[in-house]
Design a protein that fits this description.
The protein has about 280 residues and is of the alpha+beta class. It is about 25% helix and about 30% strand. The relative contact order is 0.23.
Length: about 280
Protein backbone atom coordinates (compact mmCIF):
# COMPACT_ATOMS: atom_id res chain seq x y z
CA UNK A 1 0.00 0.00 0.00
CA UNK A 2 1.05 3.57 -0.67
CA UNK A 3 2.42 5.53 2.31
CA UNK A 4 0.51 8.60 3.47
CA UNK A 5 1.28 11.77 1.50
CA UNK A 6 0.36 14.48 4.02
CA UNK A 7 1.53 15.63 7.43
CA UNK A 8 -0.87 15.46 10.35
CA UNK A 9 -0.83 17.04 13.80
CA UNK A 10 -3.47 16.20 16.37
CA UNK A 11 -4.83 16.99 19.82
CA UNK A 12 -6.09 14.03 21.85
CA UNK A 13 -8.28 14.66 24.88
CA UNK A 14 -9.26 11.94 27.35
CA UNK A 15 -10.36 11.77 30.94
CA UNK A 16 -10.28 9.55 34.02
CA UNK A 17 -12.81 9.23 36.81
CA UNK A 18 -11.97 7.46 40.08
CA UNK A 19 -8.92 5.72 38.64
CA UNK A 20 -5.17 5.81 38.18
CA UNK A 21 -4.46 6.54 34.51
CA UNK A 22 -0.71 5.90 34.72
CA UNK A 23 1.03 4.86 37.93
CA UNK A 24 4.55 6.06 38.72
CA UNK A 25 6.81 3.14 39.79
CA UNK A 26 9.17 5.64 41.43
CA UNK A 27 6.35 6.87 43.70
CA UNK A 28 4.66 3.67 44.95
CA UNK A 29 2.59 3.58 41.75
CA UNK A 30 0.76 6.80 42.61
CA UNK A 31 -0.69 8.72 39.64
CA UNK A 32 2.07 10.56 37.78
CA UNK A 33 2.17 14.26 38.57
CA UNK A 34 4.21 17.35 37.76
CA UNK A 35 5.71 18.06 41.18
CA UNK A 36 5.88 21.81 40.53
CA UNK A 37 2.37 22.44 39.17
CA UNK A 38 0.35 19.48 40.45
CA UNK A 39 -0.90 18.66 36.94
CA UNK A 40 -1.32 14.97 36.19
CA UNK A 41 0.81 13.22 33.57
CA UNK A 42 0.37 10.17 31.36
CA UNK A 43 3.44 9.04 29.42
CA UNK A 44 3.59 8.63 25.67
CA UNK A 45 4.60 4.98 26.04
CA UNK A 46 1.47 4.34 28.14
CA UNK A 47 -0.73 5.65 25.31
CA UNK A 48 1.23 3.71 22.68
CA UNK A 49 0.78 0.55 24.75
CA UNK A 50 -2.99 0.95 24.58
CA UNK A 51 -2.83 1.50 20.81
CA UNK A 52 -0.76 -1.68 20.48
CA UNK A 53 -3.23 -3.63 22.61
CA UNK A 54 -6.17 -2.43 20.53
CA UNK A 55 -4.53 -3.29 17.20
CA UNK A 56 -3.51 -6.69 18.56
CA UNK A 57 -7.16 -7.48 19.33
CA UNK A 58 -8.77 -5.77 16.32
CA UNK A 59 -6.40 -7.32 13.76
CA UNK A 60 -5.62 -10.62 15.48
CA UNK A 61 -4.05 -13.05 13.03
CA UNK A 62 -4.08 -10.66 10.05
CA UNK A 63 -0.87 -10.52 8.07
CA UNK A 64 0.99 -7.25 8.45
CA UNK A 65 -0.61 -6.33 11.76
CA UNK A 66 1.61 -8.10 14.25
CA UNK A 67 2.78 -6.27 17.37
CA UNK A 68 6.52 -6.23 17.95
CA UNK A 69 6.57 -4.86 21.51
CA UNK A 70 4.47 -7.27 23.57
CA UNK A 71 4.52 -8.48 27.14
CA UNK A 72 7.03 -11.30 27.63
CA UNK A 73 8.16 -11.05 23.99
CA UNK A 74 11.83 -11.83 23.27
CA UNK A 75 12.66 -9.18 20.71
CA UNK A 76 16.00 -10.71 19.70
CA UNK A 77 14.18 -13.88 18.66
CA UNK A 78 11.72 -11.91 16.53
CA UNK A 79 14.55 -10.11 14.77
CA UNK A 80 16.41 -13.39 14.23
CA UNK A 81 13.28 -14.93 12.68
CA UNK A 82 13.15 -12.09 10.16
CA UNK A 83 16.83 -12.61 9.26
CA UNK A 84 16.00 -16.25 8.50
CA UNK A 85 13.35 -15.37 5.91
CA UNK A 86 14.13 -16.03 2.25
CA UNK A 87 13.73 -12.35 1.36
CA UNK A 88 16.47 -11.28 3.78
CA UNK A 89 18.79 -14.22 3.02
CA UNK A 90 18.55 -13.47 -0.70
CA UNK A 91 19.47 -9.81 -0.27
CA UNK A 92 23.00 -8.60 -1.12
CA UNK A 93 25.24 -8.53 1.94
CA UNK A 94 25.41 -4.75 2.01
CA UNK A 95 21.60 -4.59 1.86
CA UNK A 96 20.83 -7.17 4.55
CA UNK A 97 20.00 -4.75 7.35
CA UNK A 98 17.96 -2.53 5.06
CA UNK A 99 15.97 -5.51 3.78
CA UNK A 100 15.43 -6.82 7.30
CA UNK A 101 14.06 -3.44 8.39
CA UNK A 102 11.68 -3.48 5.43
CA UNK A 103 10.42 -6.95 6.37
CA UNK A 104 10.03 -5.93 10.02
CA UNK A 105 8.00 -2.89 8.98
CA UNK A 106 5.79 -5.01 6.75
CA UNK A 107 5.19 -7.57 9.48
CA UNK A 108 4.65 -5.38 12.55
CA UNK A 109 2.15 -2.52 12.72
CA UNK A 110 3.78 -0.83 15.71
CA UNK A 111 7.14 -0.63 13.94
CA UNK A 112 5.48 0.99 10.91
CA UNK A 113 3.74 3.46 13.21
CA UNK A 114 6.12 4.15 16.10
CA UNK A 115 9.45 2.78 14.91
CA UNK A 116 11.76 0.50 16.91
CA UNK A 117 15.28 0.03 18.16
CA UNK A 118 16.82 -3.23 16.97
CA UNK A 119 19.43 -4.17 19.57
CA UNK A 120 20.26 -7.73 18.56
CA UNK A 121 24.01 -8.31 18.54
CA UNK A 122 25.54 -7.45 15.15
CA UNK A 123 22.09 -6.49 13.85
CA UNK A 124 21.79 -3.11 15.54
CA UNK A 125 19.63 -0.55 13.87
CA UNK A 126 16.86 1.94 14.34
CA UNK A 127 13.59 2.45 12.52
CA UNK A 128 12.18 5.95 12.97
CA UNK A 129 8.42 5.82 13.09
CA UNK A 130 6.16 8.54 11.63
CA UNK A 131 3.96 8.86 14.75
CA UNK A 132 5.24 10.68 17.80
CA UNK A 133 3.26 11.55 20.93
CA UNK A 134 3.89 13.89 23.82
CA UNK A 135 3.13 13.14 27.46
CA UNK A 136 -0.52 13.88 28.22
CA UNK A 137 -0.97 16.62 30.82
CA UNK A 138 -4.12 17.34 32.81
CA UNK A 139 -5.85 20.66 32.14
CA UNK A 140 -6.08 21.36 35.89
CA UNK A 141 -4.01 20.12 38.83
CA UNK A 142 -5.15 16.71 40.03
CA UNK A 143 -5.88 15.56 43.56
CA UNK A 144 -4.57 12.02 44.00
CA UNK A 145 -6.57 10.26 46.72
CA UNK A 146 -5.02 7.39 48.69
CA UNK A 147 -7.88 4.99 49.47
CA UNK A 148 -7.71 2.23 52.07
CA UNK A 149 -9.06 -1.15 50.95
CA UNK A 150 -9.61 -4.35 52.95
CA UNK A 151 -8.19 -7.71 51.93
CA UNK A 152 -10.63 -10.53 52.68
CA UNK A 153 -8.36 -13.49 51.84
CA UNK A 154 -4.87 -14.55 52.85
CA UNK A 155 -2.12 -16.12 50.78
CA UNK A 156 -0.69 -18.67 53.21
CA UNK A 157 -2.40 -21.24 55.46
CA UNK A 158 -0.34 -19.94 58.39
CA UNK A 159 -1.96 -16.50 57.99
CA UNK A 160 -5.53 -17.83 58.08
CA UNK A 161 -6.22 -16.78 61.68
CA UNK A 162 -4.91 -13.25 61.22
CA UNK A 163 -7.09 -10.17 61.04
CA UNK A 164 -8.07 -8.75 57.69
CA UNK A 165 -5.24 -6.71 56.21
CA UNK A 166 -5.45 -3.21 54.80
CA UNK A 167 -4.16 -2.29 51.36
CA UNK A 168 -3.96 1.01 49.47
CA UNK A 169 -5.42 2.14 46.15
CA UNK A 170 -4.62 5.55 44.67
CA UNK A 171 -7.15 7.25 42.42
CA UNK A 172 -7.78 10.55 40.69
CA UNK A 173 -11.40 11.66 41.38
CA UNK A 174 -11.46 13.37 37.99
CA UNK A 175 -8.90 14.58 35.50
CA UNK A 176 -9.09 15.80 31.90
CA UNK A 177 -5.85 15.12 30.03
CA UNK A 178 -4.49 16.49 26.73
CA UNK A 179 -1.81 14.87 24.56
CA UNK A 180 -0.39 16.19 21.30
CA UNK A 181 0.72 14.09 18.36
CA UNK A 182 2.62 14.41 15.11
CA UNK A 183 2.56 12.23 12.00
CA UNK A 184 5.34 12.67 9.42
CA UNK A 185 4.68 11.73 5.81
CA UNK A 186 8.41 11.67 5.15
CA UNK A 187 9.05 9.04 7.82
CA UNK A 188 5.92 7.17 6.68
CA UNK A 189 7.67 6.67 3.34
CA UNK A 190 10.50 4.86 5.13
CA UNK A 191 8.26 2.48 7.10
CA UNK A 192 5.38 2.08 4.65
CA UNK A 193 2.77 3.57 7.00
CA UNK A 194 -0.32 3.75 4.79
CA UNK A 195 -3.75 5.40 4.73
CA UNK A 196 -5.27 2.17 6.09
CA UNK A 197 -2.72 2.22 8.90
CA UNK A 198 -3.68 5.81 9.64
CA UNK A 199 -7.40 4.98 9.79
CA UNK A 200 -6.63 2.14 12.17
CA UNK A 201 -4.65 4.51 14.38
CA UNK A 202 -7.58 6.95 14.61
CA UNK A 203 -9.89 4.04 15.39
CA UNK A 204 -7.51 2.87 18.13
CA UNK A 205 -7.47 6.30 19.77
CA UNK A 206 -11.28 6.35 19.73
CA UNK A 207 -11.79 2.88 21.15
CA UNK A 208 -8.67 1.74 23.00
CA UNK A 209 -9.92 2.55 26.51
CA UNK A 210 -13.04 0.41 25.95
CA UNK A 211 -10.82 -2.58 25.14
CA UNK A 212 -8.32 -2.09 27.95
CA UNK A 213 -10.45 -1.84 31.08
CA UNK A 214 -8.93 -2.27 34.53
CA UNK A 215 -10.27 -1.73 38.04
CA UNK A 216 -7.16 0.28 38.85
CA UNK A 217 -7.71 2.71 35.94
CA UNK A 218 -11.32 3.49 36.81
CA UNK A 219 -13.41 5.03 34.05
CA UNK A 220 -11.19 6.29 31.24
CA UNK A 221 -12.76 7.71 28.09
CA UNK A 222 -11.63 9.28 24.81
CA UNK A 223 -13.35 12.68 24.60
CA UNK A 224 -11.91 14.61 21.66
CA UNK A 225 -9.61 13.88 18.73
CA UNK A 226 -8.91 17.00 16.71
CA UNK A 227 -6.77 16.42 13.61
CA UNK A 228 -5.00 19.08 11.57
CA UNK A 229 -4.47 17.76 8.05
CA UNK A 230 -1.84 19.60 6.02
CA UNK A 231 -1.90 19.72 2.23
CA UNK A 232 1.76 18.72 1.84
CA UNK A 233 4.38 16.33 3.18
CA UNK A 234 6.35 19.00 5.01
CA UNK A 235 3.27 20.73 6.36
CA UNK A 236 1.85 24.22 5.97
CA UNK A 237 1.99 25.61 9.51
CA UNK A 238 3.86 25.15 12.76
CA UNK A 239 2.27 22.51 14.98
CA UNK A 240 2.36 24.68 18.11
CA UNK A 241 0.41 27.46 16.35
CA UNK A 242 -2.26 24.96 15.31
CA UNK A 243 -2.47 23.55 18.84
CA UNK A 244 -2.94 27.08 20.18
CA UNK A 245 -6.20 27.26 18.22
CA UNK A 246 -7.71 24.64 20.54
CA UNK A 247 -8.99 26.23 23.73
CA UNK A 248 -10.05 24.12 26.74
CA UNK A 249 -11.60 25.89 29.68
CA UNK A 250 -13.78 25.24 32.72
CA UNK A 251 -17.37 26.44 32.46
CA UNK A 252 -17.42 27.46 36.12
CA UNK A 253 -14.06 28.22 37.73
CA UNK A 254 -15.64 28.30 41.20
CA UNK A 255 -16.76 24.68 40.92
CA UNK A 256 -14.49 21.63 41.29
CA UNK A 257 -14.50 19.73 37.99
CA UNK A 258 -15.89 16.20 38.31
CA UNK A 259 -16.96 15.40 34.73
CA UNK A 260 -16.27 16.23 31.10
CA UNK A 261 -19.41 18.38 31.09
CA UNK A 262 -17.62 20.82 33.40
CA UNK A 263 -15.36 21.80 30.48
CA UNK A 264 -15.81 23.26 27.04
CA UNK A 265 -13.55 22.84 24.02
CA UNK A 266 -13.47 25.38 21.21
CA UNK A 267 -11.46 25.57 17.99
CA UNK A 268 -10.62 29.02 16.62
CA UNK A 269 -10.92 28.21 12.92
CA UNK A 270 -10.53 31.88 11.97
CA UNK A 271 -6.80 31.46 12.60
CA UNK A 272 -6.53 28.30 10.52
CA UNK A 273 -4.29 28.55 7.42
CA UNK A 274 -6.06 27.80 4.12
CA UNK A 275 -3.68 24.92 3.43
CA UNK A 276 -4.64 23.14 6.69
CA UNK A 277 -7.94 21.36 7.29
CA UNK A 278 -9.30 20.60 10.74
CA UNK A 279 -11.09 17.28 11.26
CA UNK A 280 -12.96 16.39 14.45
CA UNK A 281 -12.88 12.58 14.59
CA UNK A 282 -14.42 12.48 18.07
Amino acid sequence: MEPIKKRYDFVYVFDVQDGNPNGDPDAANLPRVDSETGNGLVTDVCLKRKVRNFVDVAKKGEEGYGIFIQEAAVLDNRVEDVYKTEEVKAAPKDKTKETAKKVLCGKYYDIRAFGAVIATKEKQGQVRGPIQLTFARSVDPINAVDNAITRMAVTKESDKAKEKTIGRKATVPYGLYVAHGFISANLAEQTGFSEDDLKLFWTALKNMFDNDRSAARGLMSARKLIVFEHSSKLGNAQANKLFDLVKISRKDESKVARSFNDYEINIDETGLPQEVKVIEII
